Amino acid sequence: MGTVAWIIPVSSIVAFLIVALGQNSSRKLPLITLFATIIGFIAFIVLSNALLQNGTQTFEITWLKTKEVMLIWGITLDPLTVTMLGLITLTAAGVQMYSLVYMKNDSRLNWYFAVHSLFLASMITLVLANNLILIYIAWELVGVCSYLLIGFWWEKRSAAEAAKKAFITTRIGDVGLLIGIILLFTETHTFNLSEIFSAASDGEISQTTITFSTLLILLGALGKSAQFPFHVWLPDAMEGPTPVSALIHAATMVVAGVYLIARCLPLFELSEISMTILLVLASITALLGGVIALVMTDLKKILAYSTITDLAFMMIALSCGGIVPSVFHLIIHGFAKAALFLGAGSITHGSGETDIRKLGGLKNKMPVTALCFSLSSLSLIGIPPLGGFFSKEGILEVLNHEYGIPLLLIGLLIAFLKACYLGRLSFFVFFGKESKSSSNAHESPKLMLLPIMLFTTLTTLSGLLLFSYGKYDGFSMFLNQEAAHAINFLHPITISSILVSLIGLLISWNIAKGKSIPGINILMKSKAIQVPIRNLFYIDNIYQWFINAIILSFGRIIALIDRQVVNDKLVDGTASILNYSSRTFRYLQTGKMYNYALGMTFGVAGLAVLNIIWQFIL
Amino acid sequence: MELIYFELLSAMLFCIGVYGVLARKHAVLVLMSIELILNAVTINAVAYATHVDGAGITGQIIAIFIITIAAAEFGLALAIILRLYAQQSNANLDEANRMKW
Amino acid sequence: MSGEVVVFTIVSAMVLFGALGVVSTKNVGHAALYLLITLISVAGIFILLLAEFLALVQILIYGGAITIVLFFGLMLTRIDEFSSIKDTVQRPVAIVISFLLLSAIATPFLQETLTEKSLVESSLRTLGHELFTQWLIPFEVASLVLLVALIGAIVVGKDD
After folding, report:
1. What's the complex ipTM?
2. Can you give the pTM of this predicted structure?
3. From the list A594, A608, A611, which residue is nearest C101 (CB)?
4. Residues 6+ apart with CB under 8 A from B88
5. DSSP bridge partners of A59
6. What domain range is C50 assigned to?
7. Is B94 on the interface with C (CB under 8 A)?
8. Each residue of A405-458: pLDDT tens digit?
9. If I label A552, which of A20, A34, A281, A456 is the partner at 20 to 30 A Cα–Cα?
10. Does residue B5 lie in a domain region?
């Protein structure tokens, strides 16, 4: 089974090398990438079967072994890993199929697919890894691929800037992650996760270490999953091609942070402080994302902020210890967001517009896209019996269980906001009066619609995962050996969550139609509220000020030192000293033999005299 | 006759030869001084052969070789000096300074 | 005062006299003759050291061949001031250095104590035997050196 697991990243790496090295040779190379991904999916099926039969397994190949440190290519095949494998390979396959059509006229198509392969390999390694160093390596690689793909159209200045912003923002988190890993290593002398967890539960790690390392790992997760205060890169990352946004910035890379915390949950549960901070930051992020999404007008930006909100939702669930609802929501969100992003790409492809104000009534011209988009939105909003309902329920339930009514109200508020902005998006774009761009729109090709339909189906029907089939005892038992709680439709939480979503949909329906609702009107018209939100609460401005004032001025000082001290004095100075001394000393070469003979004799005589003096001294 | 006398004689001859090499301007005179040096060394070697227990006859053998090599070197050096003379029509080392700074 | 010491003093005085003459005379031809005196006196020293064959070789080769070659060399490099040549500028320094060197060399000699043996007569037979068994290879190499020097001198001295 270890070989089967390793085939997935290795096949993608091989695909990467082939496609990257043969970039200029053939236009058919992207099929190699797709092939490798499908191999990955088949491997996932095999592995999930093996998991159900045999339980969790671990495979290790030792790479480097010294007295203090061992670097191991280690895989752990446990339910969490296999779940993630399924999500990642399937989304990647669908997105790559979509890209074959969407990007087919691009001149650098081969490089695009090469980086896709590299990304898949790194992401798979990240979820397969059983030790922190391998996770870190894969973490960084995934960040690199994200950088390469966001800046894929680097000729556009804004895309290059966005890629840089993404990389640097996540880098700050990555530093924290590395320090956290090393901190854990100093106490446990291992990178292996299961060893660390058993050491922690045995009480061998000091509480301060646990707190600090979990806080630092949290830092890394916040960076990668675009939570406050690191959320600034995700909306800008929409500069990349739409399939990239679907795969990396919705379904796979950004969930790496959630995955990491889910993996390290045994460690996190030992530190109250980290869990609380996670809860606070995630709640702030969710509300922030939700509010900003309400005023955005670009198709992909709304979806980006929606991603931020949903990731925050997953983080909130984790901070209450609810790994099952969190991961379940991860899967549902993954497929749904992928469908939404691919649908957005379809809309852009069909109508040439990205501004929702310029679109309307698109369902007439693009029925399939409209249906899939709406269904996925409904699933995400959490309308029963679509899959998202169950995950939302689970999260709200665990939130109530841990923290009671106050946090439950926040959760309901988040759900309400989700309904509002997703509803607003769909209603503006697909329903209502047809705009000029809409009337000229056409439905997208079949190959583009197929992945969207696949993902929509998966997200709507994913409620079925909760039931038992054969050896599979339902998602809750499968993931965490805990019994699933029954959905009671008469429970106040359930009722209020459905109610809240429906109210949100209703409000956004009316806003889209142009009717004015008294309370909402004030919010929409008041400048004091609208201006800060539209400026993204000035967070980007604060960061830019900080960079300019502190980092760049520091950089200028360093550059000055480099130019004047290192270059002029040290490098050029050494050269000029040599020059000067050689010009002075060359006069020793008189050309006359007896001068040279004198020198030699002087040397010999001097040494001999010194020798004698030395003997007399000693 | 003790060893020390021969050693001292050899040393003095050596130093006179060194002085000659450094102080003479004409190339052939320098060559003569070099001969003095070689002879000093020969005296030393032979003295050791005769006076030191266990040195055998090695010193005299060395002396033979020194004389041989000195002769060879003398001839060759003169040939070079003649070339020098052909260049600058006198054999003064003062004027043979073209390989200078 | 044994006879040996007297003879030694006289011969070594001649050696040093000749040597000093070589390095300080203003007349080039005289310098060559002083060299001859030195070489012959050194042969005398060899006799004192019971190395008669070496003394013979010394006189033959040095006094015979080398001195003649020396005179030829002097004549061929037609010196204008044959009878009064000047020394180089670094004469004072050279004197100082030589004294320094002398003291540096002599001091260890004055301190050492090698086991002395009574003078042993070494016969020509021993010399020959050693030369052709123990020291065969250097002997052959020396002959090669002579050959090379011969050819070299011809080549260098050619007037192309």
Report:
1. 0.91
2. 0.72
3. A608
4. B95, B96
5. A75
6. 1-76
7. yes
8. 888 889 999 999 999 999 989 888 888 777 777 777 788 888 889 999 999 999
9. A281
10. no
